[in-house]
Amino acid sequence: MSNQIKVAIAGAAGRMGKEVVKLVLEDSDLELVAAVNRSQEGTDAGTLVGLPACGIKLTNDLELALVETKPDVLVDFTTPQFAYPNTALAVSHGVRPVVGTTGFTPEQIEELDKQCQSKGLGGLIAPNFSIGAILMMKFAAQAAKYFPHLEIMEFHGDQKLDAPSGTAIKTAELIAQNREEIRQGNPKEEETIEGARGGYYNGFRIHSVRLPGVFAQQEVIFGGFGQTLKIRHDSYERAGYMPGVKMAIEKVMNYTGMVYGFDHFIE
Ligand code: NAD
Questions:
Q1: Which of 45, 90, 209, 255 could be joined to 122 by an S-S link, Cβ 3.0–4.6 Å?
Q2: Which HAMAP family does this one have (predicted)?
Q3: Is the minimum distance from the CB of 79 to ligand 1 under 6 angstroms?
């Protein structure tokens, strides 16, 4: 019997999904069993990513794909609107979800955790699979103990749907664990243009820059007496997320419950 992990991919024809298709087809520890996408039905998943045909055709029916192919893991890189129902569907069919799609609410994560616990399944929702970005978040959380005044700047392409990015929210949550809530800046400050000071979180601000040509970057800027500290991570291409996705596919096989954040896997 094969020890390969059977993987289905939702959003397989998307920018991230195609990288996952390549990863799974080229990695002998993994087996692609289904590729689901809203468009391009019938296209071979291999040819879609510039590899030889693999015999797995794109389908737009996730439930049927889960029932017919019985994957171990569903990797979801779709849209914030569909990722929650897709993930709930996977769990209901006994399939472990590895979700890169951003935009989940804490209530949705809690509900999915309950469902995973009751089915005895492991799952992961990770706003960022990049190991460098995780280290940036961890270093920022550590710095916040000594530099409680900070702002987060995140930069993404102009077609991104959600703001701030999932990575920025996750960073803010980690920082909040290490820092008392303090309201920064001048209490009398007023915005003459609405939104100029960015989004408010726990006393600090998050700024979302959206521009064509930008991929994914984040800088956390700390201000102290006579000094600033900047912790920055730059992603240049989607392939950089794949070592993290592979690690997640393997990890979810071995625990129960929904984990939020790839940082839990990076010590
Ligand atoms: P994309 O628009 O290129 O791809 C999304 C794909 O999902 C499309 O091909 C679309 O047809 C398909 N799709 C939409 N709804 C679907 C459904 N219900 N079932 C099946 N397929 C469906 O987007 P992208 O750039 O690949 O990003 C996808 C998501 O991943 C976004 O939320 C983005 O923010 C997130 N993202 C996460 C990471 C990470 O490391 N976690 C990295 C980059 C992007």
A1: 255
A2: DapB
A3: yes
Any ligand 1 atom below 6 A from CB of 98 = no
5-125+239-265 CATH: 3.40.50.720
Angle at 200 between CA 196 and CA 201, to 5 degrees: 150
What would the CATH number be for the domain defined by 131-236? 3.30.360.10
Residues that constitute the known binding site for (S)-2,3,4,5-tetrahydrodipicolinate: 166-167
Q: Domain locations in the chain? A: 5-125+239-265, 131-236
**Catalytic residue status for 156:** yes
